[in-house]
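Case study B.
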Amino acid sequence: MGYRRRKSRRDKLIEEQPGNEADVKEPSQPSFSQLSQNIEYLTKALKHSNDLKIRILQDGQAALLFFETLSDQEKLQANIFTPIESGNFDSISKLPNGKKTDDLEEALKVLLRGHALYIEEGNKSLVYFTVTTTYNRNVKEPDNEKVVRGSHEGFVENIMININLIRKRLEHRDLTIKYFRVGKKTNTNIAIAYMDGITNPELVKEIKKRIKSVTADTILSPGFMEEFIEDNPMSPFPQTLSTERPDRVIANVMSGKVALLAEGSPTVLILPSTFFMFYQSPDDYNSRWVSGTFIRIIRLMSFLIAIGLPAMYIAIIGFHFEVIPDDLVSPVKSAIEQIAYPPFVEAFIMVIIIELIREAGIRLPQPVGQTIGIVGGLVIGDAVIRAGLISNLMVIVVALTAIASFVVPSHELSTTLRFLTFPLIILASTLGFIGIVFGIMFILIHLVKLESFGNPYFAPVSPLRIKDLKDTFVRLPLFKLTNRPNDANPINEKSMGESREWKRSGKSKKSRQTKGTTQPK
Amino acid sequence: MKKKGLLLLLCCVMLLTGCWDQRLFKDAKLIMGATFDLTEDGRVKDTVSILIPEAGTDRATEGHAHIETGIGHNLFDARNEIDKQLSYQFDPSKIEVLLIGEELAKKDIYSILDGYYRDPRNNLSAEVAVVEGEASKAFSIKTDQEPRVSEHIVGLLDAVAKTTHSHGDNVQLICAELFEPGIDIALPLLTVDTEANKINYKGLALFHDKKYSGISLDAEQATLLLLMNNKMGKVARITRQVSETGEPGMTRYLSAEVIKQNRDLKIKPSGGTISVDVNLDLYLNVVEYPKGKLTNPKVVAELEKQLSKTLTKEANEIISLLQESHSDVLGIGRRTEAFHYDTWKNMDWDKDFKTIMITPKVNVTIQEHGIVG
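Model:
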């Protein structure tokens, strides 16, 4: 009973929220026929901002309003004044590229979007022209997701360009883009992209519902959206894959997932995501499948190293030194004999040092950042051993852990891994191997329980889907991946038919029939 | 609120119990080797080699050994005596080698090993050997082959196991044999030459149950015994005299490596007792024979015949030594118990092993002779 009541109240809340299409109450204000009244209303609403320019035309009988900071002067000239001067039109309001409105509130919105607004004395209809100026950087390869082979394009801060990059790669009528506006004050334009007919409509419905229920004033980036719409914000694991690469977005959209783009950010979120998606890189598919598989297995091994190696080392040094191989006993013993601190403190200091170096390196300008790397890595690393604070083995272990955590193609998961090292270090230093087993068990239980938009996060391992393992630990040749992964429950599972019949020509019945049409090259 | 309390409780359980069973590796005094002797008043003299790592070096080093002795009523008592003289804690979990003095071995080796089987933290892969005379003398040897004497002994024992001179037994592997009546162990026998500062491998010490019989085989016999026991190591080398004439003397000898061996042990029960045939086929690769002419089938056949005869004779000697020492290394008793239980039931193996007929036969085939004829 209680549950049901609570649920219905929640639903009601959602419905009452602005932005929900069902009962949107957009404020509206019919325009006045008097020019001065209109202008006064607008300038007041815009708090007499100094960058709002009002050009009085026709001896005070008309006015053109625009934000000089948002509008392009040349476009203004070309779209409005040049046609007038050519003499074909006698009034600005009659220009064919102008759009009309009689709502002052809407006029406000279009002004803020960078349009120019034309108001005439005695005329209630307001005309506006698109003269928005944009400053865009190049669609260059994102620095945090570089690939060796394949496309070197990356998303930029303009959502239109981003959608253009997607559409260019996916020329199909089923590619559906839906716009939303979120952030009461920032009014951020966000869009979702999905393939109609492949993506599960339930999923799209759920995502739309979650996006519409966001009521925050400020939505600056997809990172904000991520926290509002993800299933389990308490989890250390990222539940949406963020990428700046169009090819990665296309690949995911084609397997039935939804991409979420936002104005002002080159990051695109993929919903829903699974754990193993974070370990896939476009490079796997650009190179040959054998090398792709090899690199992916190395990458997955890095997961175990990144979360488990320091813990393992501490457990061995502090509890179970029987497992050290006989020939290593003496070297290990001599390395740690003179260290003042217990391994737990030792590891803690070293991990913190590495994190400090990393963080300092990111924030500083490039030349200084390199200096930090050298000072931190070489000087501190060497001195710390000589000073006897930390054993050289611990430096190896922690450095290896840091490297392993950077192997993950996703920055979010990389941070998660380095963060997960800490609880495991604590457990290992209190309980030894048993602690590690418990820690990893908790992490696994959590991973298995986690859902991303209603889809299991740890799929296809749990729940086990043998078919989808083809592109998880290994990457089989593309022509073997005939079915889309079941991660997002696509309604159209088949992704290809027979592609390499020519290879078997003369051997199977089917290929004999099509022998005349397929010609091997 | 409930959740928070639970979390707090969990933290308390983990961090505040006070029973932190941490054993820091750096605080352990690692015992790398131990020797055991019987003192005149019947107590145990335990001499151990302790690993002392080299301090303040940049590179990883082998460290050196520190020798300490303790005398006590039993193993742990002697250990306690040693522990009193050590900084940090006595830790036998990485022990590499256990040496048992001849006198103690002749009494009972299990009385020493018992403590090693009971404590789960002991290293069961530590190698075991018997030392002629007093075992503690072995640790007084300062060899410059290896910085630590225990490492030197382990290397020695590994090498003799590889060349088919010993079973390569460790604490774990001899356990079952110690308790089973139908099979006995043979541990490598070492001698300590204090004057030459050397430890040598002498042969195999033959055990009966848990006691060293006092009879041992030399190195050549050890190899043949191991071949008869189907326990060939990585290589098995045989050097035998094959002719009476020839100058210089080394031309009379032939050296060969065993490529393949095929042992057939047949137990025939008859009239309440058994007779045993041990047939051993050896396929050899001649590695040294200066006289040569091994491409001639006649020469080869002659050599094979000669070698078979010599080895069969030696095998007979080994068998009689085994029976004399009452050491059933071949596990004939175990096989009899398994395959001829009715006969076994009526036999008193402790006595009857000496009386049964064991007929060994070695059959040599020369298969390869290297790249010259």
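The first strand of chain B starts at residue 28 and ends at 38. The remaining cases will be described in the next quarterly update.
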